[in-house]
Specification:
Layout (H helix, E strand, L loop, with lengths): L16 H11 L4 E3 H7 L5 H13 L7 H16 L9 H4 L2 E3 H21 L10 H19 L7 H16 L2 H32 L2
Antiparallel strand pairs: 1-2
Helix pairs in contact: 1-6, 3-4, 3-8, 4-7, 7-8, 7-9, 8-9
């Protein structure tokens, strides 16, 4: 089974996602950038890259009304991965949502260093994690993180989004260790979300006791 990393071996574009996104921001001339246009312009419809683009606005708190739709799209993509799909078409209702060039540049500016740091740690290994059966498990984790991002949990976006970024980069660069790490971070994010919700109920119970 080929990893997504092999898709870039014979490609003239830089394989590192952070470099590709920075180059796109520096060359795009339009005032508003649709999410679907980003994926089409970079010519990558693999699950890893689509998930990486979706995780950006959820990882960095910007106040933009796009994290919840991105979480919903992650749930859809996770369900498709669970069904064994390896080529993802972004839902049209999300593909048409747009950011200004400045907003997208802001996202890339603060997330690209994180992606570049992660990419330096990644190397092709544990190829069995990139097989269809294991990617179904990744789909479950992606859907779970999408749900956590979609729900209005205080401070509940960054950790699930980071988990998705790690798994996405692992799929793109062929690193099974990164995928396993993303799964671990996903479980931590779930535990933190449960603790925050439980604490919220405790506070409400005390206030109205």
């Amino acid at each position: 089974v080929r990893s997504e990393a092999t898709e870039y071996e014979n490609n003239s574009r830089p394989s590192k996602p952070s470099v590709r996104l920075r180059m796109y921001v520096s060359t795009v001339a339009v005032a508003h950038i649709a999410i679907g246009d980003i994926v089409r312009a970079l010519g990558d419809s693999t699950p890893g890259f689509v998930l990486l683009v979706l995780a950006l606005p959820a990882f960095i708190p910007t106040g933009l009304p796009i994290a919840a739709p991105a979480g919903a799209a992650m749930m859809v993509i996770g369900a498709l991965m669970m069904a064994g799909r390896t080529d993802i078409t972004m839902p049209s209702w999300l593909a048409h949502r747009s950011l200004t060039r400045a907003q997208f540049g802001y996202l890339v500016k603060f997330t690209a260093p994180v992606m570049a740091w992660l990419a330096r740690l990644l190397t092709p290994r544990l190829a069995w994690m990139l097989k269809r059966r294991q990617l179904r498990i990744v789909g479950i984790m992606v859907a779970l993180n999408g749900l956590l991002i979609f729900l209005p949990i205080p401070f509940g976006n960054s950790i699930p989004a980071f988990a998705v970024m790690v798994m996405a980069l692992g799929m793109m660069l062929g690193d099974g260790v990164a995928i396993l790490s993303g799964i671990l971070v996903s479980m931590i994010a779930l535990l933190i979300a449960i603790a925050i919700v439980a604490l919220g109920f405790e506070i409400i119970a005390v206030l109205f006791a």
